[in-house]
Design goal:
The protein is of the alpha/beta class. The chain has four domains: about 60 residues, no CATH class; about 45 residues, no CATH class; about 80 residues, Ribonuclease H-like superfamily/Ribonuclease H (Nucleotidyltransferase, domain 5, 2-Layer Sandwich); about 100 residues, no CATH class. Helices cover about 45% and strands about 20% of the residues. The chain contains 14 helices and seven strands. The strands form two sheets. Strands 5-4-3-6-7 form a five-stranded mixed beta sheet, covered by helices on one side. Strands 1-2 form a two-stranded antiparallel sheet. Strand 4 and strand 5 form a beta hairpin. Helix 1 crosses helix 3, helix 4 packs parallel to helix 6 and helix 7 runs antiparallel to helix 11. It is elongated, with a radius of gyration of 31 Å. The chain starts with 12 loop residues before the first strand and ends in a 6-residue tail after the last helix.
């Protein structure tokens, strides 16, 4: 019994017989395969329409079967759309539309999960274009790794457009925002009503970048602003202070200990940087507590590479 493609209801009466039509399907042994079927237009009592009957292998108004669209989408995930089109003898637009339709079906079957961990970052579009904005703001769901929203520019106004589109319930489910040190993104979250409960966190790379910047400023103050004698000692040693302790060779560790021995403040700053590196790269604190107690963390800090470098202060 045919079904209405508009409401899905079963229809006993036929309004019109239609000529045969074809749908492109997966190829077999390198040969193109088409599905040919002569359908009908039904009289639906449920919705009162005269829609074309529903077919099991394709969506309405589509010229490809569902499995062909799914196959093209899987291939487009690992290669450019142009390559997929050339492989199957299709146009770029045909593959792109098939991909969009397959993603829409997949999205419709997924459960609606709340957005809890939000990632915000900017992406440079390169030089070879005449667009007004050189950057785009990308908002992603960190739990699934999927982009949620893309906007032009990387200003506070650009991110505020998306934040203000969220409902009160959606804002309440957000637990944190992860972003780099770009100040307009901070301001957009801080100035949006309903997100006061969501903290802003940063990734280890940007945290250590800021810590290294502070240590480098200490190096300039200790050596380059203290006279020509100490300037000769600290010249060319910037990389030695910024490199992680485990990546420093045994020969360079001797030079590092000698360098840190010139100033207690610099030694303390290097120690804090290395201990901070262990914290941001360690396992979650809750997992550490579940395995033992805080004593294990204290013991790890006591034997940290920074203390092994002789950077302790009384």
């Amino acid at each position: 019994m045919p079904r209405c493609s508009r409401c899905g209801g079963a229809c006993r009466r036929v309004h019109e017989l239609l000529p045969a039509r074809r749908w492109a399907d997966l190829s077999w042994a390198g040969h193109p395969v088409d599905i040919e079927y002569a359908g009908c237009r039904v009289k639906c009592r449920a919705c009162g329409g005269h829609a074309v009957e529903m077919v099991a292998w394709a969506d309405p108004y589509q010229r490809q079967s569902r499995r062909l669209q799914h196959h093209l989408t899987v291939e487009a995930a690992s290669m450019p759309v142009m390559h997929v089109a050339a492989l199957h003898g299709l146009s770029w637009l045909t593959v792109r539309r098939a991909e969009e339709r397959a993603i829409e079906r997949w999205e419709a079957t997924r459960p609606a999960l709340p957005l809890r961990h939000v990632g915000v970052d900017e992406k440079w579009l390169g030089r070879r274009h005449d667009l007004e904005h050189k950057f785009v703001t990308v908002v992603s769901n960190l739990e699934t790794g999927e982009p949620v929203w893309i906007g032009r520019g990387r200003s506070e106004k650009a991110l505020r457009r998306w934040l203000e589109s969220l409902s009160r319930e959606q804002k309440a489910t957000v637990k944190l925002f992860a972003m780099d040190l770009h100040r307009p993104f901070w301001n957009a979250v801080d100035n949006t009503r309903g997100l006061e409960h969501a903290p802003i966190v940063h990734d280890p790379f940007h945290i250590m970048k800021l810590a290294g910047k502070m240590v480098d400023e200490l190096r300039r103050e200790v050596f380059f602003r203290a006279g020509p004698e100490l300037r000769a000692v600290g010249k060319g040693r910037r990389w030695l202070l910024l490199r992680a302790w485990e990546r420093v060779s045994a020969e360079d560790r001797v030079a590092l200990r000698e360098l840190l021995g010139h100033n207690r403040t610099l030694a303390r700053g290097y120690q804090i940087k290395e201990e901070l590196r262990e914290v941001v790269l360690a396992a979650p604190i809750a997992l550490r507590w579940s395995r033992g107690s805080t004593a294990s963390f204290d013991a790890r800090v006591a034997t940290s590479p920074a203390r092994s470098a002789g950077c302790t202060t009384p």
